[in-house]
Every structure is written in structure tokens, then in C-alpha cells.
């Protein structure tokens, strides 16, 4: 039986989320009050369950040697207690790293016109240069799952954030095409690595909490996107240089990072045989294709939404950009309320209704003749897509065909392939049929996502 040796004076208890994890993994606990460890009774996890049933564990002075039968590998509960803070701090840190990623990614958008003028780029050259950002992300994402397994989430998230921060001043100042391409590729690699690592941490935190949290995490990414682009645009409008504007946003990102580093998970998965190149298989491949469709739809609104609205002769160029603005606001609001909605109604109804709403919005944006109604259709698309992608990450983290870290890496790569190839695919289809036809085709693909909702939510 496991013996517990109390200590005189207050001692920090083990986090409740970790204790739940121990029980779920059917760990074997042994007491280490001294240098020797006595093996605990495997057949009586009830002892640990009774201990962990309190909201805060009783102060103890014991170390639990945990032997997992699956992907986590051997580690001690004391190590986990050090690397895994309380559930509240973990969830807070996860929200902040999503916010940091959104800030970094969106801060680049207002700098694009300045980079074009500084480097004297035409449209084709600018498009080729922007492609470097996506290529960097796609090259980094497939290997990030293995990096997380070997070095832990904390190390990967710190490294990738610092890489993004180091590239941001270069994006505002570089004077040659070659250096700009290299800076964009490394910038994209940092964003891609951070995306995979933070989503893996989000999946693990949600598992430990035992309640929906993924939509709320992604809401902070959306919020970061709005704040980052808005802050840089405001600073530029006040007369600050691109470099100074970026440095101010960088300072905010660095403060947030240093504030929340202690709350990043740092457990390693102890699986040195994991491959560096991840090929999705089984259910992960299916989820990856759905992620491709959803990211394709998001990219369509971003890159082609304004042009679609301008096909209406009543719509003006000055107001065409409102479509994406309404889409972004709707997505952010939908994600902030998503966890409560999922908890209330369940994953299947939310996934089904979300995909149907997004498909309907895409179709209505094409079919409705009134510009105001078309703008509201983009609002519907934003609400529909807001919680579908977070639920895909939840499904990838809980399937059994691949380790969660590799599954998230593979699915994220497929998703970003959709948002990267989307503009070109839509452009090709619009030349073959029409831009309206391309959006209607995306609406049909979103209906396929709706049909797959039960499989995602199982």
C-alpha cells in the first residue's frame, strides 16, 4: 500500500489535473519518503483516487514514481508537479501563447505595403516573396511534433517565439530581395512551430481539465490577430516608422512571454524513435482533409472576399473590406462563447450547425443581390467556422491512430497547405468557371464537413 508521510508546515500539493492524468493512464504509484521506493499495489488505484478527489490535494511529502503504459513514458509526479502548474495557471499560459502567436502573425500584415515600396516590387514579385512565409511554415510544421516529444512544449514554444521576434525587425528594414525572402521563411517557420506546439499544449490542458477549452484558446489567437494588425496600423498612422512600430509590438510580446514561461508544459514524451517526417494515417488523414477544407474557406474570405463583394455594382471599393472585418469579429466572438456552447449542446451539434452555417454563408454571399446582405453572409461564415477548427484539434489530440503530438503536427500542416494553396486554387477555378462558382464549390465542400460532423465529434 502507498504510504504518505506528512510534513510539518505547508507544502504545495500536486495539481488536480495531473492527478486525474495519473488515474487515466493507470499509473502505478510508489512512495518515496526516503531514498528507497516501495512498489505500490497496482490493483488498488482507489487509494490514489480517494486522495485526489479533493479540489486541492492534502499537503504531502512524497514522490510518486509513475510507470505509464503508453506514450508519456516514465516520469515522476514530483517532476510533473514542477513542470505542470495548477490547471488555472496552465490554461492562462496557454491563452497567452495563442495571443502571442496572433500578435506576431498579424503584425506583419500592415508592413506589406512598406516592404513592397522599399524593395520596389511588382505584383508578381510580391506574391512570390509572400509565398516564402507559407513555405517556411510548411517546412517547419511536420518536424515540430517530434521536437515537442524530444524537448518539451516549453522549449519549442520559447524557441519559436524568439525566432519570430528576431525576424520582425528584419521584415521592417531589410533592403534586398534575398534577405527578405530568408527573413520571411524563418518568420513563417517560427509561426508554424509555435502553432503546432501551442495546440499540443492546448489539447493536453483540455484533457486535464476535463471540459471544453479549445475554442477559448483559439479565441485569443483571433484576438491577437485583431490587436496586432490594429496596433501596428495605429502606430504607423501616428507617424512612427515601421521599425519603431514593430519594436513596440515586440516589447509587448516579450513581456507576455516572460510572464507566462513558468506555465508552459515541459514534459517530454520519451519516444526517441518518432519519425521526423510525419505522414498522416487513419483518422488523422481524414481530419487533416477536413482541416484543409476549413482553412481553404478561411483563406477564400481573406484573399477573395472583397473581390467577390465588388462583383455587385452597388458595392464600393472602400466598403468591400468590411466583409473580412465582419468575418474576423464573428469568428472571435464565436470562439469566446464556443466552450460554453459545446459544453451545453455537445460537439456533434456544434460541428454540424457550424459547418452548415459556414456553407450557407458562402452561398448567400454569392446569391444575394443586396450588398448589405452579402456582408451579413460573411458574418455567418465567421460564426460557422469559429469553433469547427478548434474541435478538429480536439479530435486529433484524442484519436488513437497516431501519438497526439504527431497527429496535431500532421493536421496543422494539411490545414496550412489549404490556406497557402487556396488563393491559387480559387484563382484557377475563377478563370475556369467564375469567382462566384469557386465560392459555391467551397460551400459544397463545407457541406461535406457537415456530413462528417458525427465522425469528428465521436
UniProtKB/TrEMBL annotation:
Where found, per UniProt? Answer: Membrane
- Which GO cellular component term is one of those annotated? membrane
Q: Which residues cross the membrane?
A: 96-115, 127-149, 156-172, 178-198, 219-238, 244-263, 284-310, 316-336, 348-368, 374-393, 405-426, 432-453
One Pfam match, given by its short name, reads: MFS_1
PROSITE patterns, sorted? MFS (PS50850)
Q: Where does this chain mainly localize?
A: membrane
Membrane topology annotation? Multi-pass membrane protein
Residue ranges annotated for the Major facilitator superfamily (MFS) profile domain, each copy included = 90-458
What InterPro entries does the record point to?
Answer: MFS, MFS_dom, MFS_trans_sf, MFS_Transporter
Does the UniProt entry include the keyword Protease? no
Q: Which GO terms describe its molecular function?
A: transmembrane transporter activity
What are the record keywords, sorted? Answer: Membrane, Transmembrane, Transmembrane helix
Q: Which PANTHER family match?
A: BYPASS OF STOP CODON PROTEIN 6, INNER MEMBRANE PROTEIN YBJJ
Q: What is this protein called?
A: YbjJ
| UniProt source species | Pantoea ananatis (strain LMG 20103)
Report the gene name.
ybjJ
